[in-house]
């Protein structure tokens, strides 16, 4: 953020020199807005630090931050020096998500980690709205959502897990029997592998004998309760 810091070998003397442990809130806001991060790694580092300074910010500061452009956005897996207003991010996604941005790419680019995201949430970033769109698409056309994930089981699983995190905010719905979800299949060596399967092929059954003899498609363990809504 462009701040001068004391040399490592002099840090034990910082108090004697009158060096502050952290910049004040005005300096932090100025540093962020005048020198915003240019890539994901730097953004994550800065946002995580700013999250530790939340108590120093006032309501007026949070309102100001909502109108500043400091969040790097990813296009086609490349970070460009383009920044968006926190409270405009969702509107931008809603308008262009199906035209310019692969859903799974964008999910990665706005996810800077738990602590960094806490700071961004205070700035007005609303992640739940993004996943609400993914949730609607899941029930409208799970295969389209699967295609947006480039038919990658890891990416699709990530989105299902994120939808599950906020699912209690959405009304209950049912999937069609031919909709697709991530399932687990045990191979001949006893290893569990993620794969794609239709709703009608996935079973929630804890009977070990049944599982051993029939080896059905089963839900990922952390999504069992989520799947129970529509299996």
What does this structure look like?
By secondary structure, the protein is of the alpha+beta class. The protein folds into 2 domains: 8-125, no CATH class; 170-227, no CATH class. The chain contains 12 helices and 4 strands. Strands 1-2 form a two-stranded antiparallel sheet. The N and C termini lie far apart (50 Å). Residues 75-82, 90-102 and 104-108 have low confidence and may be disordered.
Count of helix runs:
12
C-alpha termini separation: 50 Å
| Domains (count) | 2
Detail the poorly predicted runs: 75-82, 90-102, 104-108
List the helices and strands and how they pair.
Blueprint: H1 14-17, H2 25-34, H3 40-52, H4 59-65, E1 71-75, E2 78-84, H5 89-96, H6 103-110, H7 114-122, H8 127-140, H9 142-148, H10 153-165, E3 180-186, E4 192-198, H11 208-214, H12 224-227
Antiparallel strand pairs: 1-2, 3-4
Helix pairs in contact: 3-7, 8-9, 8-10
């Amino acid at each position: 953020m462009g701040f001068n810091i004391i040399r490592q070998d002099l840090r034990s003397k910082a108090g004697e020199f009158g060096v502050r442990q952290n910049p004040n809130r005005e300096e932090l806001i100025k540093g962020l807005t005048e020198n915003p991060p240019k890539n994901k790694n730097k953004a994550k580092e800065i946002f995580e630090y700013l999250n530790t300074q939340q108590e120093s910010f006032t309501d007026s500061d949070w309102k100001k931050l909502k109108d500043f452009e400091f969040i790097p956005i990813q296009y086609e897996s490349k970070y460009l020096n383009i920044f968006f207003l926190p409270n405009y991010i969702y509107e931008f996604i809603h308008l262009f998500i199906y035209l310019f941005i692969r859903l799974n790419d964008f999910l990665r680019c706005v996810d800077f980690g738990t602590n960094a995201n806490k700071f961004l949430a205070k700035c007005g970033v609303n992640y739940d709205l993004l996943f609400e769109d993914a949730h609607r698409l899941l029930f409208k056309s799970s295969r389209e959502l699967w295609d947006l994930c480039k038919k990658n089981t890891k990416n699709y699983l990530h989105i299902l897990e994120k939808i599950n995190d906020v699912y209690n905010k959405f009304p209950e719905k049912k999937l069609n029997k031919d909709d697709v979800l991530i399932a687990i299949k045990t191979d001949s060596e006893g290893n569990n592998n993620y794969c794609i399967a239709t709703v009608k092929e996935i079973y929630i059954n804890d009977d070990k004998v049944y599982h051993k003899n029939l080896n059905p498609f089963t839900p990922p363990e952390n999504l069992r309760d989520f799947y129970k809504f529509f299996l």
